[in-house]
Structures are given as structure tokens and as C-alpha cells.
Amino acid sequence: MKINKIYYLVFGLIVLVPLGLLSENPAWGEWDMEYYEQKLGFVPDGIANASGTTPPLPDYSVPFLGEVSGYYLSAIVGVLLVFGIFYVLKKAIKR
Amino acid sequence: MHIPDGYISPASVVASYMVALPLWFIAFNKLKAKLDEETLPLLSSLSALSFVIMMFNIPIPGGTSGHALGVALIALLFGPWIGFLSLSIVLFIQAIIFGDGGISTFALNSLAMGFAGAFSASFVFERLKNKSYSYFAAGWMSAVASSVVVALVLGIQPYIGSVDGKPLYFPFDLSVTLPALVGSHMVFFGVVEGIFTKIAIKVLGKLEPKYTKNLGANV
Description:
The structure holds 2 protein chains of 2 kinds.
Chain A: H1 6-15, H2 33-40, H3 45-48, H4 67-93
Chain B: H1 10-34, H2 40-53, E1 58-60, E2 64-66, H3 71-78, H4 80-98, H5 106-128, H6 134-155, H7 157-160, E3 162-163, E4 166-167, H8 174-207
Antiparallel strand pairs in B: 1-2, 3-4
Helix pairs in contact in B: 1-4, 1-5, 2-3, 2-4, 3-4, 3-5, 3-6, 4-5, 5-6, 6-8
């Protein structure tokens, strides 16, 4: 079977993904509560009371796993979900 | 640029979903026409690339960081509607599974990084098609256009959501958001997106030439 070479590209980028951990800086605007506390003296109500549901893999980390292995696993989970959703969409569309 | 929950007012949430829903509907119909045995591997791989490239956080001066989006690449190969929908799928996974970007702000994030990103990339690319820098320019524009949408929506929150001068949602106004977000995307992340788009097209053209043959000579 001939493998579509575009998968190499996805695989290669996954291998390099720990490079994304090198930066400690948050994205602009995506600060934690202490930032607002420091900057404004208070946390805006809406931000303080934003729904507190914890996602399964918060901030691309996996419970009980180290930072790098958790980041790897997050990348793999995310990629599999993307492929899964497109596969299901294709099945649903071509019925 | 993934706006978390609680950053925009309820009215902004409702408005963003009302704008996004019909656009998702149109985009889904475009996908229906294009998604088949032939296109599935490429489109799902490009969307996976978008997911992974967003994990490469790049620090910039001033204590913040950012990343490429991968949206221009999809828009150039599949058209802006599919680019918009693919990014929406990626952002949905990021919001639900990883808490990156809110669920109430999912529509807004899709409109910014997906819709504005994809359509601005296609617009620029169509106009520069035969120039060697068209891929870079399309990528750069997609990141900058996304940042404009985010900066505008965040920057109006202090005006529409304050009680006694105390902001309830995002607290900084346009005089802060525009230079910080749009400025950093013009100087840094737009450049990163441009370079990513250019390299990805080049590598793709080498690996599987059939995918890039419709783009013109400058692959």
C-alpha cells in the first residue's frame, strides 16, 4: 500500500512539538487571575466567574504525566480527533 | 488569540453565534461538495497541521507569546469556506478537550482565526497569484486580519460591559488591544504565519505534487 506522503509532514511536526514548551510567556490576553489583580487591583467579575468546568487535558497537559510526555500525548490526541471528525463527516456526507 | 470564557459580554456571545451559525451552514455545504476519498487525507492532514502548529508557542519581547494558525494554507488549497470550517473544527477540539479558548467564545474565535483568517488569505492570494511572495503575503494577512477581529471585539468590552466604570469583562479598551494584538501580529506572528505557509506549500509540492498543481507556477 502506498502511504500518502502528507502524513510524514504531520508526523514530523508532532515529533518537534516539545519546542512549543520553550516559552513560558502566556499569549497576550490569556493571563491568569493574578495578572488582573496586579494590573487593575481586581479581577473583572465576568472573568472571575467564568464557568469552572475543567477540560479533560487542561493546557495540553495530561494528569500524572510529565510536561513533555503530556504535550506529546496531547498532540497525538488532538491529531487523532481531527482525523476522526473528518472521517465521520465524510461518512455522513457520502451516505 | 484564543479568547477564554468570561472575556466578552453575554450579548457579544449571542451576537457572535448569530453571525457564525449561518456561515458554518454555508461552509458545511461547501464541504459536502468537496470532501471525498481523494480530498479526505489532505484536508484532515492540513487541519491536523493547524492543530499542531498552534502548539508551537513563540515568545516575543514584552512577556507574551503567540503561534502560527495554519489557516492560510487550508484556504489556499481548498478555498476560504473550507479553511473557515476546518479551523472551527480545530478550535472546537481545543476548547472542549484542552481548555484553549472558551466554549462561549468558540464562535468568536472561529470568526477571527477561521473566517477572517481564511478569507483574507484567499483575497490577498488571488490578487498576487503570480508573485513569488504571494504565499507569504497570504499567510501574513491571515494572522493580521484575525488579530484585528479579536482586538476590536475585546477592545469594545469595557464600553459595553462596565458598571460604575468598573469593567465586568475584558478590561482594556481599543487603545490597548489594537497596538498590542494587531501590532504584534504585523511584526511577529504574521511573519511566522507567512513563513509557515510558504514552507508548507513548498514541502507539500515536493512530497505530493498533485496537491499543489492548481496553485500556479510559484510553488
